[in-house]
């Protein structure tokens, strides 16, 4: 599981949540801490760059809203130059990074989006962390609760598993991950840096860095 640590997955220079990420070894360990961290950090943000709107909602003055038809619940931080498109539904405990795009009818809940992340069309992202420039194609979602409602286990094959102790864990996407349209990332999915997922995939377990997920049992290394 060592290839799926925070250090291996993410460039912490590309998130306002770097201090939180440094507090754990694996990304799923910080999911229960996101809410409290946002409130703590938000109260320290410079007033010349961020406006506080409502209860525990901080929005950068340079963030772009393409419509008033947006719902935002706190706690939430929307960083500089982020773009929020019509119909976005941000349910709270969400950090939207610099230059990130939250698209039409996209729903966020208990997430960290690193800088330049794109979730631009009909995405659900819950209890998840998306690394720098990660992109989810139209209609792709993170499933964050198992159908049997049992606690989520991170599985890198049969011999390498970690119990999270959490009922809700979505997906951990490393930097520059590309997820194809219409894909489902099942609870506890972890995808290494610069890997790709084919459209219409149902992904489980861990995908190494610089690989292509073509289907179950069909994961191939990228050719430089």
Q: Can you walk through the features of this model?
A:
This protein is mainly beta and 224 residues long. It is built from three helices and 25 strands. Strands 1, 2, 4, 5, 7, 8, 10, 12, 17, 20 and 23 form an eleven-stranded mixed beta sheet that branches. Strands 13-18-21-24-25 form a five-stranded mixed beta sheet, with no helix packed on it. The protein has a four-stranded parallel beta sheet with strand order 3-6-9-11, with no helix packed on it. The two termini are 24 Å apart. The model has no long low-confidence stretch (mean pLDDT 97).
Which descriptors apply to this entry?
35% strand, 3 helices, mainly beta, globular, eleven-stranded mixed sheet, 224 residues, five-stranded mixed sheet, single chain
Element layout with pairings:
Blueprint: H1 6-9, H2 18-21, H3 34-42, E1 50-52, E2 57-60, E3 64-65, E4 71-72, E5 76-78, E6 83-84, E7 89-90, E8 94-96, E9 101-104, E10 107-113, E11 118-121, E12 124-130, E13 135-136, E14 141-142, E15 153-155, E16 161-163, E17 171-173, E18 178-179, E19 184-185, E20 189-191, E21 196-197, E22 202-203, E23 206-207, E24 211-215, E25 218-221
Parallel strand pairs: 2-5, 3-6, 4-7, 5-8, 6-9, 7-10, 8-10, 9-11, 10-12, 12-17, 13-18, 14-19, 17-20, 18-21, 19-22, 20-23, 21-24
Antiparallel strand pairs: 1-2, 15-16, 24-25
């Amino acid at each position: 599981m060592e290839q799926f640590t925070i250090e291996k997955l993410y460039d912490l220079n590309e998130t306002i949540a770097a201090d939180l990420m440094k507090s754990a070894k694996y990304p799923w360990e910080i999911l229960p801490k996101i809410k409290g961290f946002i409130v703590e950090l938000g109260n320290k943000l410079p007033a010349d760059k961020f406006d506080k709107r409502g209860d525990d909602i901080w929005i950068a003055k340079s963030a772009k809203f393409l419509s008033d038809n947006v719902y935002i619940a706190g706690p939430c931080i929307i960083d500089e130059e982020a773009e929020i498109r019509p119909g976005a539904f941000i349910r709270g405990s969400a950090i939207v990074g610099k230059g990130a795009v939250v698209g039409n009818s996209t729903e966020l809940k208990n997430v960290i989006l690193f800088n330049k992340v794109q979730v631009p069309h009909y995405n659900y992202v819950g209890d998840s962390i998306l690394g720098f420039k990660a992109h989810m194609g139209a209609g792709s979602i993170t499933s964050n609760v198992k159908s049997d409602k049992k606690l989520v286990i991170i599985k890198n094959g049969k011999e390498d598993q970690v119990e999270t102790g959490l009922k809700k864990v979505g997906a951990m996407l490393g930097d520059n991950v590309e997820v194809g349209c219409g894909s489902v990332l099942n609870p506890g999915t972890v995808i290494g840096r610069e890997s790709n997922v084919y459209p219409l995939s149902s992904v489980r377990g861990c995908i190494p860095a610089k690989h292509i997920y073509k289907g179950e049992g069909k994961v191939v290394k990228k050719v430089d």
